Amino acid sequence: MADTNALLALAGRHLLKTYKQPPLVMTRGEGCRLYDTEGRSYLDLYAGIAVCVLGHAHPALVRAIAEQAARLGHIANLYYNDKQIELAAQLCARTGMDRVFFTNSGTEANEGALKLARRWFFTQGDAERTDVVATWSSFHGRTLGSVAMTGTPKYWEGFGPRLPGVSQVKYGDLDAMRRRVNDRSAAVIIEPVQGEGGVFPAPPGYLQGLRALCDERGALLIVDEIQTGVGRSGKYLAVQHEGVVPDVLTVAKGLAGGVPIGAFLVRERHAEALAPGTHGSTFGGNPLACAAALAVLETLDREGLIEGAATKGAYFLSRLEGFAAKYPALVKGARGRGLLCGLVLADHVEAREVLGAMRDRGVLIAQAGDRVLRFAPPLIITEAELDEGLAALDAVLAALPQETK
Ligand SMILES: Cc1ncc(COP(=O)(O)O)c(C=O)c1O
User: Between 38 and 402, whose confidence is greater?
Assistant: First the structure.
């Protein structure tokens, strides 16, 4: 067995301290369970931040990766590869988009979307049309373009000068968008459910309103489904609940169930914005990642996991809402869509403490915003496993002082 203390000492010396990690070292996963160096097991209710849609070591994914690695792992985009072409066709069929560019991460997908929007107007002879309107409390990634669009200032502080032309308005406020979007706006970027910002689903009609506004003013509608996509919301895309088709769509996270990949997808009318030589990636869409993504799609269908996300998510959310009634001094409410749910804690309750207490009981969850517990379990999770997580949460909340401070 690996020596935990020795590993933690090496981590302390050699990893940048960008993450606030508890002293646990994970070595293995199976289904919805993770195992650490001490052999302890944990119920995984965050799935590597909404990534491991098939849980850990799913046989179909393991097989696809192993077979592809033995056949062809990487060639770069100097040549076509069969898996990338197949995956592009399948993604277009599922999303209503026409063309795909593959990246390695979510933030790169958003950078590509931003470049495409600006370049589109450049090619139309409107090179001044470069503004991007995003929303407060959004999260779009950590590279300089994405971080500028991200609506939480702590993520940009100290990394200036910030990308010019990018601004934020209140999420869910269509009038605020109407006031901001004008003939200098190249794009509006929106999450159908703000994930990192605190699990805020878009209010009814908001996404349709943005679609109409972008059509009216000629701006591109970029929908960031990096966290909500790939079935998590109960449909392949969360915008599909509203019947909205974006101009540019970004996906990543769950796309290949844990193998790094992302993509931005566009409709035909804007595709010519990125002509040969205008954008590229060495790793993006390599055969290994694309084979994994194809296995994810096939397994989502075969196991009915997208429909399952809707029913299991509705069950889970109703149980979380029950905690607001049971612990009114500690819990303000619950919200979410499908298997992306948030429990909103009262102002005096430290989310970090609840996370730690859950971990001590062998259940892993994530945080969103300052006071929200975020649940984004693998889509393969069973109702019994959800109940196990809920029982742990019940016990943790019951052990906290029940009065408001
Ligand atoms: C909505 C959204 N967009 C973009 C990103 C950035 O993705 P990545 O961390 O893969 O760069 C995230 C990551 O949490 C996200 O939730």
Answer: 38
What structural domains and CATH numbers belong to the chain?
4-58+304-399 (3.90.1150.10), 72-302 (3.40.640.10)
What are the two backbone dihedrals, phi and then psi, of residue 332, each rounded to the nearest 5 degrees?
-85, -30
Give me 320's structure tokens. Answer: 């979380």
Q: Order of strands across the sheet with 366-368?
A: 331-337, 340-345, 372-375, 366-368
| Known catalytic membership, residue 264 | no
Residue matched to tokens 């392949």:
236
Q: Quote the crossing angle between the two packed helices 383-399 and 305-326, to the nearest 10°.
A: 20
Q: Is the CB of 105 under 6 A from ligand 1?
A: yes
Rg (CA), the chain: 21
Burial class from Cβ neighbours inside 10 Å (0-12, 13-18, 19+) for residue 313 reads buried
What pLDDT shows up at residue 405? 55
Would you tell me how many other CB atoms lie within 10 Å of the CB of residue 366?
20
Cβ–Cβ under 8 Å, residues 149 and 225? no
Residue 204 C-alpha from the chain's centroid: 21
Give me ligand 1 centre to Cα 221, in Å.
Answer: 18
pLDDT at position 43: 98
Instruction: Determine whether 332 is an active site residue.
Output: no
What does the alpha-carbon distance between residue 396 and residue 382 come to, in Å, rounded to a whole number? 21
65 lines ligand 1 (CB under 6 A): no
Torsion-angle region of 318 (φ positive above 0: left; ψ -120 to 50: alpha; else: beta): alpha
Does this model's pTM top 0.90? My answer is yes
Confidence of residue 1 (pLDDT cuts 50, 70, 90): low
- pLDDT score, position 2: 73
Query: Does the annotation count 224 as an active-site position?
Result: yes
Strands (E), 75-199: 99-103, 131-135, 166-169, 185-190, 193-194
